[in-house]
Design brief:
homodimer; 458 residues; alpha/beta; Aspartate Aminotransferase, domain 2; three-stranded antiparallel beta sheet; 14 strands
Chain lengths: 458, 458
């Protein structure tokens, strides 16, 4: 009655390497008492990053607003005056509290705040109606892809990519149109590679509709220049493609001289009016609130009748979780200079970002120093994507075999590059650079020994 | 590039009346300053039901666990000793806190607690592996239906039904196989009506795979007897159907002598081993924590290889929100007799349930007393489903026209029965009985006047 043959075959096709067999093996070893290091997923608080005090003070007050009448006691326990005031303001904006369903698109005052945030960040206009709050950014991707995918609809995705995209395309029955990122040029997008991917797909009858761009990039760590984004937008316009801009790492830019440019702002500058869906999340940046599942999707140049259909689809699931909605609000409304929380907030934020930058460089250098591995220092996001020389392995992609060996030998969990896609004949791993700084030197020594052992035994 | 013609046509087909045009009209009127009464949706805290103190104390502590070291101050602010201890225990079980992604299926200690809850409730065995925590029960429905629906796959749904089911079937491209509930026999399931629906669908080549049952029922307020559930299970077994048991109202049973029986327990008693998916949620019962989006799906008699595929699909969305996960844990682990929180918890719970029972009866009686309307008192869930005599209206279903008139005249928002399905030639409305008790007499007077006015003018 129920077996693999009776399941929707798209379910069987979908793959999601970030939580695949390597992770299952690691969880098994952990149950047996082994120490495991989760380099496989951008989950900062699992790896010791503390939450921001300001955020958690306010969320705790909103979960039990009766305590707001005990200001003195709250202050004596370390709560900041502005946290208490912000919690009171949020209660005024949303008097029903966290326990009621919100509007399907999210609480109106938060959607307005997101619109204001985008306006100020990019110096462009933005409307609350075009913003849907979501349980993390993934749900925004699901919404767009499930609504536009039909048979033979093609979605251009970068290779390497974040495997949510390939998994969703499989689940919804669409066609992947993979374009390679240019590893020799800092993983930027390359017009010829885009054209080649588009043309080959179109030639086989695929109706290519949308181009996914991840900037700053997961897994390569690249940060796109304005010039590169302009090229992509012109390419999309020429081929009548919509853009899905995954911009969840917009706060994770580490190099002096680099900057985050949103696709919405660059398109606005060029006067290009193609539909653009932009994603943001509370899970990344210096916030790292993965478990709260906050985020939003912003739509531009989307006809009103289509926006209403997307809203209807959102309404079937009622609303995203209210704590995640509030977290999204706090992410875009940090304390201001002069507020009692400001100094601590800034200190915590700067510490997290500085540590990420240091760790990115320390791990990249350690990996790059190993003969047979090359690993540039990531300029953005939370990941390294080292290239490894690996021997051919029977019955398995070499990177998968090595990732398995690595977790068995060292407890270090990585994701084989084949889960993200890579140029044939090259092998990579995806690793976060989030593990605690004091553990990294030993872990890198273990990594090196495991790599050398793997090479020798193969 | 993007318009209604280029969207997936399944999106256009999907309807979700609970948040449809009547609600939009109400929101518009509210913006203009009109007082609006949301009888359309089971959203208790929006209508003044307070959250349970125990739950919110613990959630607030877990959001800011640094305050756990200030026990004395917490106690002096009204926190209960056992809330503080439970929060500490949860931190021990899940030391990474709320900010980290959990395992895809949810935190292991909570899944074990759910398994223990089911075992104790039903005196049957249950396994944590078969439990996935979800963002409300809706996401469990999405998971099952999206995984088994393919072209020509039929899903049996009750008429009237909760429109999540019809919407999902449309979105995923399946076929609705509607079976009528027996209005003349307290809306129970009727074997002949089930057979008729199944046979007619099968005759047109539909591959009927799953039967949805909602018990206690939304929108009819019925509570199924063990005998009726046994009939349904035997019917399902005879026709090789899986069961999706929507049991989110299991705590909402109001009549002496009625009891909630889970499909899992009744199947166990009969020795029937068909796949059963059972849903529960933090949004309903006396909990009413809709905004937190907590819930779970339990699977029985599902082959391991299928369970792993469903787990993979869940993993693509990473995990459900952690606050909702904790809320689910607290729902199934209330304070025990003798705990400092126990008396208050019991008082709050009893007050909520007693008020629901009273309101169900007051509203039903008020409606039933209106000439042209019949409305039995609901025995369970949170809704009334009155049957109304209505004149024929040009260009509109009569119930839709009346619901529109009603909100314009009185601010009372209801959902037309046509959004849930009803026997042709009959008209109904779905209304919650959650609005504040002191407002109900006036609102019912307004309802009556609007109904009489509508009849006269038509």
């Amino acid at each position: 009655m129920l077996n693999l043959d009776t399941l929707n075959p798209n379910v069987l096709k979908a793959q999601y390497a970030v939580r695949g067999p390597i992770v299952e093996l690691a969880q098994e070893l952990e149950k047996q008492g082994r120490e495991i290091w989760y380099f496989n997923i951008g989950n900062p608080q699992q790896l010791g990053q503390p939450p921001l005090t300001y955020v958690r003070e306010i969320l705790s007050l909103l979960n039990n607003p009766t305590v707001l009448e005990h200001s003195e006691k709250l202050l004596s326990m370390g709560y900041h005056q502005d946290s208490i005031e912000t919690a009171r303001n949020i209660m005024n904006e949303n008097p029903v509290g966290l326990g009621a369903y919100s509007q399907s698109a999210g609480m109106p005052f938060i959607r307005q705040a997101v619109a204001d945030f985008i306006s100020q960040r990019d110096n462009i206009s933005a409307s609350a109606d075009n913003i849907f709050l979501t349980d993390g950014a993934s749900k925004g991707v699901d919404l767009v892809l499930s609504s536009i995918i039909m048979e033979r609809v093609g979605i251009m995705i970068p290779i390497p990519q974040y495997p949510l995209y390939s998994a969703d395309i499989s689940l919804f029955g669409g066609t992947q149109v993979p374009y390679f990122l240019d590893e020799n040029n800092g993983w930027e997008l390359n017009k010829d590679m885009l054209e080649k991917a588009y043309t080959e797909a179109a030639a086989t009858g695929v109706d290519v509709k949308l181009l996914v761009v991840i900037n700053p990039n997961n897994p390569t760590g690249s940060v796109l220049s304005r010039r590169n984004i302009e090229m992509v937008l012109k390419f999309a316009k020429d081929h009548k493609l919509m853009i899905l801009a995954d911009e969840v790492y917009q706060e994770n830019v580490y190099e002096e001289g680099d900057a985050f440019y949103s696709f919405a702002s660059v398109a606005d500058g060029l006067g290009i009016e193609i539909p653009i869906f932009s994603l943001h999340s509370t899970s990344k940046g210096y916030f790292g609130e993965c478990g709260l599942r906050g985020g939003y999707i912003e739509m531009r140049n989307v006809p009103e009748e289509v926006r209403l259909e997307l809203l209807k689809v959102r309404s079937i699931g009622l609303c995203s979780n209210t704590v995640g909605q509030i977290a999204t609000y706090l992410m875009i409304n940090p304390p201001k200079k002069g507020d009692p929380s400001f100094e601590l907030y800034k200190k915590e934020k700067d510490k997290i970002l500085a540590s990420m930058k240091r760790k990115a460089s320390i791990i990249a250098n350690a990996l790059d120093a190993i003969e047979g591995i090359s690993c540039p220092t990531p300029r953005g996001a939370m990941y390294l994507f080292p290239k490894l020389d690996l021997p051919e392995i029977e019955d398995s992609p070499a990177d998968f075999a090595f990732a398995k060996f690595l977790v068995e030998e060292t407890g270090i969990v990585t994701v084989p590059g084949s889960g993200f896609g890579q140029l044939p004949g090259t092998w990579h791993l995806r690793m976060t650079f989030l593990p605690p700084e004091d553990k990294i030197p030993d872990l890198m020594t273990n990594f090196k020994q495991a790599y050398q052992k793997f090479i020798q035994k193969s």
